[in-house]
Structure formats: structure tokens, C-alpha cells
Write a structure and sequence with these properties.
Layout: E1 2-4, E2 47-51, E3 55-57, E4 61-63, E5 74-79, E6 86-88, E7 95-99, E8 108-114, E9 117-132, E10 134-140, E11 143-155, E12 161-167, E13 170-172, E14 177-181, E15 184-189, E16 192-194, E17 208-212, E18 218-223, E19 226-228, E20 232-233, E21 236-237, E22 242-254, E23 257-259, E24 270-272, E25 281-288, E26 291-293, E27 298-302, E28 309-311, E29 314-316, E30 324-328, E31 344-346, E32 349-352, E33 360-364, E34 370-372, E35 375-378
Parallel strand pairs: 1-2, 2-5, 3-6, 4-7, 5-8, 6-9, 7-9, 8-10, 9-11, 10-12, 11-13, 11-14, 12-15, 13-16, 14-17, 15-18, 16-19, 17-22, 18-22, 19-23, 22-24, 22-25, 23-26, 24-27, 25-28, 26-29, 27-30, 28-31, 29-32, 30-33, 31-34, 32-35
Antiparallel strand pairs: 20-21
């Protein structure tokens, strides 16, 4: 173990800084920071522990340690009591941590990051950047704020970015997106995505935006996350929340809450849709048990997703505005896009206290689909029971 303590801007009162002349192997004599410390030469299982209540001016580090393994990872964590260690990263177009290197095919991995806070100070492009061939990364109980993109993953053949667990984090207050990129055999669960894409509210930025191609986008679980007021400008959601484009296979979207106070027509809460000029498809998707509140004219939009299952979702719209809860199907399949068909849409509920004429729980034009037991509740019934907020 190595211990670090520093007292830069944002440190707690009474903070005591360490000294880089210390060995840093005891919490009573910590180092100050990572200056001159080679994180890629330490042995497997090494822990880098930062004092709670401390604060650091953070310089970019690149993790590419060939010693670590999935079972003996390099760990960045906190020690002591108080607030999470604060890493202030004023890095312009860079990133706080790069996991891996461009065009590296060695597929290194075994990194755990937990119990810390990264703040991009509104000036840094990316918080955590997962690059090309990388495996077994855990990001948990961490706060990521003040960046343009909180977490970005850019997969490449032959291995891609795999076995990533992003859980119990606050990924909030980033100017563009909370998470962007490609993952395989990975899970995103129990996170808070709040107030991302708060500058422009653009439909090109999202709370999370997952994509896929031949290099990644397989076997992903997005579960029990909360999306609150993403893509909001002047109190109204204008853009994206949970979005999927490209080629993805084997995606479970379960138990998430996506909530707005108000949404303009283009505020789609969940979008599994075509977005590129290359072939797109979304195979083996299951969307179940989610709650979607106050989106735009469509809460869940689906295209090029043959065999998709949507069940037990609750869609609430307290606005006096037209809304289709679930819209599946399309009439344009260009550039090799896979046609819709054989969707299963069952047991979904739309709660519309004051519905505008034409609003519905589901509009399914995908051929050979099974649509059953979907219910629209209005008036008082749309605010109680399953519809209660």
C-alpha cells in the first residue's frame, strides 16, 4: 500500500499534507502526490490510497500496468474519514485518467477505482477514458463532475473494452455526456446521472450514449440507474437521456428511472434507434421494469430492433401534451439497417392524468409483433398506485 495526502483547493479544514520524501507505506507518513511515482511499475495488487478530506491538483495519468491482473488489480481508493478525496483536473482537451493506450493490442486490465471525486472544473474534456483493448475495470462509489464527458470508452479489435463494472457512482454536472462509447460483457448499475448536457441540451448529447460495431457493443446490462434532469435548459429537457445507436447485441435495460420535470417534443427518454449512415441493428434487447417520467412526444423509441421485448415498464406524463409511450417500427431501412419485426410488447402502463387526444401507451408498426395487456390510465387513476411518483 501507498498513502497520499495533500491540501489543495477544496480540502477539509485541518488537512495535513504529506511529503514526497516519505516512503508513503504508512498512513502516518504519507507521500504528498504522484509526482515521480510510476504507477505502471508497481506489482499486482498494489493499492494507492488517498486521504479523505484531502484535495489534489490532478495531472493526467495513464494506466498501462502489465503486472496487474483481474484478480490482483491496481486499486485507487480512499483512507481515513470524511469527504471523498478530491482530484481537481484542469486539463483542457485531455483526460484525468487514461486506461490504456491508442492502438495497443496487449489487452491489459485489472484496475479498480473507488471512493474518490474527480472534478474537471468545467475545463477538461474527459474524466475517465477507456482506450481500445482493455479488460476488467471497476469504477464504483466515485463522483465524476465538471467534464465534457464523464466516462468515455473507445473499443478496438481484437479484444475491445470488456468486463467493465460502473456502479454506485454519481456522474453528474458534465457539460456533454455522462457516459459515451462501447462496452462488451459489462454492467452499468445503481448510478446517478444528473444534470449532464446542461449547457446546450442538444439532441447530440445524452445522459448515457452507448454504441456498437464490430469492435464492441455485446452483452451489456444497464440496471437500477437514476437519470434526473439530463439535457435540461431553462427547466425543460430538450435532448437525450438514455440512447443507443449502431450495432448492439444482448442488452438488458432493467429497473431504471428516467425523470424530467418537463420535456419538449424532442426529449426522448430512451432511444434505441438508427442514427448513423452505416448499417444498424439492435438484437436481443430486453427493456423491462423501467419508469420514465415527463418525456417528449415519445418516451421509448425503437427502430431496427427485431425481436425486442418491452415489458412491465411504467410511463408517466403529467404534462398536457401528446405522447406515445412506446413507439416501435420504422419505414426507412437504408445502408443495411435491419428491419423491425417480432417485437413483444406486454404489461406496460401509461399514466396520463390529462392526456392530449391521440396519446397512447404503445404504437407498434413492426410486423408479426405480439402486443398484449398494455394499459393507459387517466384522471385520478394516473396519479396513484403504479402511477404514483
Amino acid at each position: 500500500m501507498y498513502y497520499f495526502a495533500d491540501c489543495q483547493a477544496g480540502a477539509a479544514a485541518g488537512c495535513v499534507a504529506g511529503n514526497n520524501s516519505n516512503a508513503g507505506t504508512s498512513d502516518s507518513a504519507p507521500k504528498r502526490d504522484l509526482s515521480g511515482f510510476n504507477v505502471n511499475a508497481v506489482p499486482a495488487g498494489t493499492q494507492l490510497l488517498f486521504r479523505r478530506g484531502g484535495a489534489w491538483t490532478w495531472a493526467n495519468i495513464r494506466l498501462e500496468n502489465d503486472n496487474v491482473t483481474p484478480t490482483s488489480p491496481l486499486v485507487i481508493d480512499a483512507y481515513g474519514s470524511g469527504a471523498r478525496p478530491l482530484f481537481n483536473a484542469n486539463l483542457g482537451g485531455g483526460s484525468a485518467i487514461d486506461f490504456g493506450t491508442y492502438n495497443n493490442t496487449s489487452n491489459d486490465g485489472g484496475y479498480t477505482l473507488r471512493n474518490v471525486k474527480f472534478d474537471g472544473l468545467g475545463a477538461t474534456a474527459t474524466g475517465l477514458f477507456l482506450i481500445h483493448n482493455l479488460r476488467h475495470v471497476i469504477i464504483e462509489n466515485t463522483e465524476i463532475t465538471g467534464f465534457y464527458i464523464g466516462i468515455q470508452s473507445q473499443a478496438r479489435a481484437p479484444h475491445g473494452v470488456t468486463n467493465v463494472a460502473i456502479r454506485n457512482n454519481s456522474i453528474s454536472g458534465n457539460r456533454g455526456m455522462g457516459i459515451l462509447g462501447q462496452f462488451s460483457d459489462s454492467v452499468i448499475e445503481d448510478n446517478l446521472f444528473e444534470r449532464n448536457n446542461y449547457v446546450s441540451g442538444s439532441g447530440f448529447n445524452h445522459g448515457t450514449y452507448l454504441s456498437g460495431n464490430a469492435d464492441g457493443g455485446r452483452n451489456i446490462t444497464i440496471r437500477n440507474n437514476r437519470y434526473i434532469r439530463n439535457s435540461v435548459v431553462n427547466g425543460v429537457c430538450e435532448g437525450g437521456n438514455m440512447t443507443f445507436h449502431g450495432q448492439l447485441d444482448g442488452v438488458l435495460i432493467e429497473g431504471n428511472t428516467i425523470e424530467q420535470d418537463a420535456g419538449a417534443a424532442g426529449c426522448w427518454l430512451m432511444s434505441i434507434t438508427q442514427g448513423y449512415d452505416t448499417a444498424e441493428w439492435f438484437r436481443n434487447f430486453v427493456v423491462r421494469g423501467n419508469r420514465l417520467i415527463n418525456g417528449g412526444n415519445t418516451a421509448i423509441a425503437v427502430q431496427s430492433a427485431p425481436g425486442i421485448v418491452l415489458e412491465d415498464n411504467v410511463i408517466i406524463n403529467t404534462q398536457a401534451a401528446y405522447q406515445t409511450g412506446i413507439n416501435i417500427g420504422h419505414n426507412e431501412y437504408q445502408n443495411g439497417d435491419v428491419p423491425d419485426g417480432n417485437a413483444v410488447v406486454r404489461n406496460n402502463t401509461a399514466c396520463y392524468p390529462t392526456p392530449v387526444n391521440g396519446s397512447s401507451v404503445a404504437l407498434v408498426t413492426a410486423p408479426n409483433s405480439q402486443v398484449s395487456n398494455n394499459v393507459t390510465l387517466t384522471g385520478a387513476a394516473a396519479s396513484t398506485g403504479v402511477c404514483a411518483r
